[in-house]
Every structure is written in structure tokens, then in C-alpha cells.
Amino acid sequence: MAGSATLQEAAWLARTLGRGDLSPFSDSDMDAISEVIGSVRAPAGTVLMTQGEPMRFIGLIREGRVELSTRRGARRVVLQVLHDGDVFGDIPFLCEMPPPFGARALTDVSVVRIEGDDLLRIIQTNPNVCHRMMFSLASRLQRTQRRLLEVTKADLRTQIVALLLDETEDRQTVVSLSQRTIGEMLGASRQRVNQILRALEREGVVTLSYGRVEVLDRTALSTTV
Predict the structure, then answer these.
(1) What does the alpha-carbon distance between residue 156 and residue 100 come to, in Å, rounded to a whole number?
(2) Rounded to an integer, what distance in angstroms lies between the CA atom of residue 186 and that of residue 225?
(3) What residues does CATH 2.60.120.10 cover in the chain?
(4) How far is 199 from 138, CA to CA, in rounded Å?
(5) CATH class for domain 4-147?
(6) Which of 165, 171, 177, 193 is the most buried (most CB within 10 A)?
(7) What is the tens place of the pLDDT at every residue in 146-171?
(8) What is the pLDDT of residue 1?
(9) The whole model's pTM is what?
(10) CATH class held by domain 154-222
(11) In what order do the strands lie in the sheet with 66-72?
């Protein structure tokens, strides 16, 4: 029988994964999940997924931030920063392909972990869980496609505004990304990012401090491009 802590993790996952209104978890779904999930805490800097190495599990971030990055020669390039409720490792695991990027804890993190074999068994025998997993995957794919369109079609100011709006959607107003990281995510220099953020600060829609950008008014920010 699952302990109270495990049941709490299962209840959190049921609230977080995909859209609960589309496929509510039944009691049997909750029992199946609570039997296989585990909770891991890791300090900032911990490598959670290694580029090029097969994935044996998936992770759901309960608390903290995780950086996805890849190597270009000796240089590490940040691709994305994951937050509470985001998932990593499921796509390379399900595709049986080594991940093309690594994952590292930016802050102290709490991760709900499901071993790969357990995940396959659950999605094969619990349709609601499978549906929620599919919705989660599709939502992230849509978000990635939207960001690619922004990068390929928009100027850098529009890309930065879109990134700030995306990072503050349904979250706190503070974007805890350095200007260098923002530049790496958008393929731009830190100097150009700084120029644009300073202009937005003068317009009164953001404030800047070390390693972070605070969005003061999302509506006003969205009208600046």
C-alpha cells in the first residue's frame, strides 16, 4: 500500500499532467501511479539527463528550474528552461533515442520520477493516463513549434517579448534567466539582448536586476511589438 507521501505525489501529478478535465484519473489510475512513482531531490548543478545517453526514466519537475542545453564544441548552449510541472526525458525514452541535449538543475529541485518500464505498463493499461501523456506531449510540441516560428520570422525584439510572455504565462512575473541565457536561447549576443531589455525598461514594462527580468505589465508588454 502506498504511503501518504507517495499518494501526495500522485495527487500532484494528477493535477499537473496534461488537462485533467479531458481525462480525469480514476481510483485505479491513482493506485497504479502511486505504486510506481518516486520523489528525488537534487541540489543546483546536478545533471539529471546526459546528452547522448539512453533514458531509462521520465522526470516531472515538482519544484525548481531545470536547464536543457547542448554542446557545440567546447561551448554549452542553453535551449530551454523548464519550470514546475514541466516534463523531461519522455520523448527520448518513448522514441528509444538518446537525448540530443542534457538537463541540469539550475536551482535545488524536486523531481517526481517514473521508471521507463513502469511508464510503458501504465500507459498500456490505463487509457486516461495515456491520454493525459499524449496531451502533455502535444502541448509541448505546439509550444516548441510556436517558438520556432517566432525565431525564424520575427526580429529580436519581438522574439524577446514573446519569450518573456511565454515564461510568465500562468507563472510568477519574474523571469529568472540571465541575459546571456536569453541570448543563447534566441541565437543572439548578450549585448543585443541587453540593448533591447534596457529599451523595454525605459518604456516601463519590465525592470532588470542581476540574472532576472521582472515583467510589470504583460498586457502592455504584448503591445510593444
Answers:
(1) 25
(2) 17
(3) 4-147
(4) 35
(5) mainly beta
(6) 193
(7) 777 776 767 899 989 988 988 887 66
(8) 44
(9) 0.77
(10) mainly alpha
(11) 47-49, 102-105, 66-72, 75-82
